[in-house]
Amino acid sequence: MKKTLENKLLDIAKKNQTKNDPSHDFQHVFRVYKLAAQIGKNENADLDIIIPAALFHDIIVYLKNHPNSKNEAHESAEFAKNTLMKIKEYPKSKISRVCTCIEQCSFSKGITPELLESKILQDADRLEATGAISIMRTFSSCGQMNRPFYEVTDPLCKKSTVKFRSGIDLFFERLLKVEKGMHTKTAKRMAKHRTIFLNKFLSQTKKELAESGVI
């Protein structure tokens, strides 16, 4: 992709990305874009598809407990399609594949991607759901939804199957599972190191909760 076009897409993403959700702000988008481009180069994928898909994959964002949150991927894909159609230098034949990548990116829907570029975008986005960054994003979301850091009666999620009562619950529901779902060698290698860090964080959390008399 030509640098002028890439910069134009970056500007559009930056101007339109939500500024009310630190878990899905432009910095999240920028990291996914950089990760996707890196993985895409390693996998000989089409960066003309990967770059706009990464930049617009979360352009429409709702709170996780909002009734419209299930429509985010579709609405983001529609934004990407409408935006790319207006950009003269962007190859129109690739727009549908950009939309497919965005539609198939969602973690919660459990979609298995079809395209190489879809797999790469999903890998890049899921790398944000494991490791140190994922911890920051998890507790940011907890604050927005007024969820506790941990459930007092079950702080390390040993007993309950209730979904996302607390931040620590999300470790077991999502963050620790990410590594097994990676598609590319590059992402698998990155996810492995990030999962190791998550387990260290949980070990330290357990130690501190014990010292505090919580467990």
Residues in helices, as a percent range: 55-70%
Number of strands: 0
Uncertain ranges: none
Radius of gyration: 18 Å
Total helical segments: 9
What shape does the CA trace take? elongated
- Classify the beta-strand content into a percent band: under 5%
Biggest sheet, open or closed, and with what strands and sense?
A: none
Give the helices and strands as they follow along the chain. Answer: HHHHHHHHH
Output the structural class.
mainly alpha
CA-to-CA gap between the ends?
A: 54 Å
Summed over residues and divided by their number, the pLDDT gives a mean of 93
Descriptive overview:
It is elongated and about 65 Å long. The longest helix has 27 residues. The N and C termini lie far apart (54 Å). The chain contains nine helices and no strands. By secondary structure, it is mainly alpha-helical.
List the helices and strands and how they pair.
Elements lengths: L2 H14 L9 H17 L4 H10 L15 H14 L9 H9 L12 H12 L4 H14 L21 H7 L11 H27 L4
Key features of this structure:
elongated, mainly alpha, 0% strand
